[in-house]
Amino acid sequence: MMRLQQRTGGQWLAAVLIITLAAATLSAGTVVPQFPDPGNPSMTREQQEQLGLKAAAQVYQQMPILPDTSPETKYIQALGKRLVATIPPEHSWPFQFHTVAEKDINAFALPGGPMFVNVGTIRAADNEAELAGVMAHEMGHVYMQHTAKQQGKQSVLGGIADIVGAIAGGLGGAWGGLAQTGIQFGAGTLLLKYSREDEAQADAVGAIILWKAGYDPVALADFFEKIAAQGGTGPQFLSDHPNPGNRRAAIEKEAKNWPPKTYMGNTAQFAAVRKDAESVRVYTAQEIADGAKAGKWAAMNQKNGAVFPGAAAAATAGASGGASVPSAAITDVQPNSVFVNANLGTLTINRPDNWPVMQGRQSDSATIAPAAGVSGSAVAYGVVIQTVAEPSPNASLDELIASVVKTLESGDKNMKQDGGVQSVTVNGISAASMYLKTVSPMPGSDGKPQPERDRLVTVPRGGGKAIALIFVAPLAHFEQMRPTFEKMLYSVQF
After folding, report:
1. What is the pLDDT of residue 217?
2. What number is the average pLDDT over the span 86-108?
3. If you count Cβ atoms within 10 Å of the first and of the last residue's Cβ in the chain, which end, N or C, has fewer?
4. Mind listing the domains of the chain with CATH numbers?
């Protein structure tokens, strides 16, 4: 204390100036990164979480998942928890982390937070930072709510059509179940076709997550470059994650202004899990597709203890079809008498001009419905059209429709057959028809759940493909809609 008091005024001034200049230099050259505003898409938070839960539950039915007790899943969950802790609570989501026993390099995150990381991705990463980079990038898509925002870019259903088809539906009702039949695995590679702007935003958010978690943000770019250089399955993954430009340069440009850190090196935990991952039985995308058709993975996952932790919540959402449609008067959904032609690419069909086409991002799916008859992923009135895969070469009409019905029933536990198979002709082609029953996503006039009746028509198109059309209406109004449905069906031209 005495020594400090003995300093002269000049000495004190010099010391203060040095400290002030040093602080100014530090603040001028460094800026603590802040998470961006994710925006406000039309889908509510609850809708996104329900969509993600039901989709994740279907992934557990359609892909080989490692149990939570596996070293790989324990590690992925611990790493994910570390990354989630960096996100401001008001913009975070109930993230979950799961591991897929797939050989290919891939990771995908669903709306609301469920994330799946392939064993092949763990094997391909050279260090923990690279693996964290892939996960942080996918978390960036969830943070920015890219899936929900795509809904607004398309139409009522267009923005989420790819999710429904890619992860085998499970949204309840006719739409979710029907979309399952068109899946070509793996789920992640078909999940979403992100735009370059989406990718740039996910990179930016992912880089901030990495920096705040103590990892070098450039590791994110390192892993994407590695995938691109490997060829093989890499470009397939990158086709859904288009390079937004020079992602390395963009990340380095941002990070150079952030306060310097001593980044985490590799960890013993990562080394141990990566070594263990080499011994895990993994499957190719084709093997997974074949196993899904045979129901192999649902049985195997159950046997191995790989049970979706959100199953209860997903089931609760499913009790009302996952998403619901607000009650509407019949006059609000009634088709008018003026019909116009709609070209859907694979076919043309006449539709009431007050029932617009809601085209999926993929050309093989579309919904034609009155605006008041749909909401989000749910369809209460209308027609859903989807290209589906035949169950086997030269499948009979009975086998084809049975395959679609089986998928519908697995996606909607309330969906049941309502009568036998009937022979019909569509555009001169022999086809099969069957009635189904389930619970409508739209409550009745008394506010209570009401039964729904659906008519499924499957038309073989050759080359292992078929067209499935499902005509949807509450049971109370199905006969009223029947003339319109018949007119639409028999107007189809391929």
Report:
1. 95
2. 93
3. N
4. 45-317 (no CATH), 330-489 (3.40.1000.10)
